[in-house]
Task: inverse folding
């Protein structure tokens, strides 16, 4: 994106990125357009960008709506296990008015959506590149409606049918989150890219909050609608998306790649208004694609793991690995359990669990300001450190097993942890993994990242209960030592590999990665200072 404000003549930009061209491809030499576009983008503040590109911001937030279902589904699966009528209809009777859902079905219901999400995220690259960003979301909606339909009409004790419905819906969820991240990265101007991509996590939190509220309202019903209504409410969002999709603009990047330049021009006019230099914006997209084509003309999933793209894909995946290593499933998944240990009644513990998700929403809203003020690398690394400290404190507090004061402190720390997590590594993961990929491979890299996210979440949902529950390892809060230790290794990795992508255009990021610049120097590196020549690059 570009704005008509006069470019800053001192703005640094690549003047010799062709020095990194490989093979026999002709060197790229039209850097004037990229330099001018980069300067005008960087001259635009987030507030002014929000005013000028308010339509782009609106459609990015709209396309992120599907991520709400990811959060809703992840929370409703575990929440329904506490609903008596759900256990009655899908479990077995262990005593008078006492029903239990078999452990294997608990694990299956909790993890099957993640399995579907892995395949959904991985398939996004093909679907999105072939049918466009809007086409991918439309397919998500249709698949999601079908999956929800199967769940809603599942009769009692037809556990396998419910499992199939959750698997199908999970497939759409993986595509929703991947597609939203790709769309935001391509439609947003540079000044708002961090805000819109981090809003993916905000929608996930809103979905979790909504799920907790719905189950609280219906959980005590004795009819099957105690769990059918929570399923049915999910229909609202794919229907809203399908209604709005015909009016949503397609990604101009995708249109240019498909040779539909005139359509891309119309989209840019619509998103930024007639007062902006649309021709410069269009040229920036065209020239960036041309520059990337000098590195590789065609792309496959295998290209995500070749050359410098292997590093970019690794970063996109590791941000989600680090989220799980930081113990998010342990702390937030067992927050209600810690509240019960602190002496709260079951109903009050559940109310506090709803409060935990509300705090997460507030934390995400803070990110809208901090992501541009302090940058991606700074916030991610420091909040990872803070989460590590909280985890270790929880571990130490859990050593005295019968200390009521320590239990209260652990319960309070779950609130502190969630606020820290949701102001940092939670939303920033979605920002970083969308920005580090090249424009050519974005949909594929983002899909692989969501696959890793789903896989890690599934593993943690299986492992954590065995570590915490009294009838298994019975470690309780001492599991904080395990995740605290993992976080230490994560902090070291993040220091060396998480780059600062703030205020970097797509072509600048391409050049920085191709030159193998250290992640610690991304923010300060002056691209024109590199004095390589074409002949040296070809050697």
Result:
């Amino acid at each position: 994106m570009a704005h008509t404000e006069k470019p800053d003549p001192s703005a640094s930009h690549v003047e010799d990125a062709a020095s990194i061209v490989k093979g026999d491809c002709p060197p790229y030499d039209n850097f004037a357009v990229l330099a001018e576009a980069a300067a005008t983008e960087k001259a635009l503040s987030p507030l002014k960008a929000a005013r000028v590109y308010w339509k782009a911001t609106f459609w990015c937030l709209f396309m992120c709506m599907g991520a709400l279902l990811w959060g809703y589904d992840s929370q409703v699966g575990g929440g329904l296990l506490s609903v008596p009528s759900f256990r009655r209809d899908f479990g077995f009777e262990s005593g008078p008015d006492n029903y239990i859902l078999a452990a294997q079905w608990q694990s299956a219901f909790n993890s099957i959506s993640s399995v579907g999400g892995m395949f959904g995220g991985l398939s996004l690259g093909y679907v999105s590149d072939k049918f466009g960003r809007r086409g991918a979301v439309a397919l998500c909606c249709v698949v999601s409606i079908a999956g929800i339909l199967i769940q809603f009409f599942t009769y009692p004790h037809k556990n396998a049918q419910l499992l199939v419905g959750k698997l199908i819906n999970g497939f759409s969820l993986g595509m929703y989150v991947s597609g939203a991240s790709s769309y935001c990265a391509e439609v947003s101007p540079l000044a708002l890219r961090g805000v819109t991509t981090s809003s993916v996590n905000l929608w996930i939190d809103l979905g979790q909050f909504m799920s907790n509220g719905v189950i609280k309202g219906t959980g005590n019903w004795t009819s099957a609608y105690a769990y059918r209504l929570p399923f049915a409410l999910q229909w609202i969002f794919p229907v809203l998306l399908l209604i709005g999709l015909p009016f949503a603009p397609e990604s101009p990047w995708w249109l240019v790649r498909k040779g539909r330049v005139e359509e891309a021009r119309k989209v840019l006019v619509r998103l930024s208004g007639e007062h902006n230099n649309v021709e410069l914006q269009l040229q920036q997209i065209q020239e960036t694609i041309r520059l990337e084509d000098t590195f590789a003309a065609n792309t496959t999933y295998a290209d995500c793991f070749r050359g410098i793209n292997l590093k970019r894909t690794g970063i996109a995946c590791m941000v989600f690995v680090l989220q799980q290593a930081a113990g998010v499933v342990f702390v937030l998944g067992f927050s209600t359990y810690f509240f019960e240990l602190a002496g709260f009644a079951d109903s009050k513990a559940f109310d506090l669990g709803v409060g935990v998700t509300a705090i997460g929403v507030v934390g995400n809203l803070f990110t809208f300001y901090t992501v541009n003020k302090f940058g991606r690398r700074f916030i991610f690394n420091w909040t990872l450190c803070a989460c590590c400290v909280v985890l270790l404190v929880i571990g130490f507090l859990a050593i005295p097993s019968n200390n009521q004061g320590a239990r209260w402190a652990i319960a309070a720390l779950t609130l502190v942890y969630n606020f820290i997590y949701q102001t940092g590594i939670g939303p920033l993961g979605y920002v970083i993994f969308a920005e580090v990929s090249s424009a050519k491979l974005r949909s594929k890299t983002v899909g692989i990242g969501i696959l890793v996210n789903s896989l890690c979440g599934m593993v943690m949902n299986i492992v954590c209960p065995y570590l915490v529950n009294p009838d298994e390892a019975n470690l309780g809060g001492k599991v904080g030592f395990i995740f605290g230790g993992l976080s230490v290794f994560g902090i070291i990795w993040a220091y060396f590999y998480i780059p600062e992508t703030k205020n970097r255009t797509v072509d600048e990021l391409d050049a920085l990665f191709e030159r193998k610049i250290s992640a610690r120097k991304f923010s300060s590196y002056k691209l024109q200072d590199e004095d390589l020549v074409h002949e040296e690059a070809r050697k």
In short: Strands lie at 92-95, 98-100.
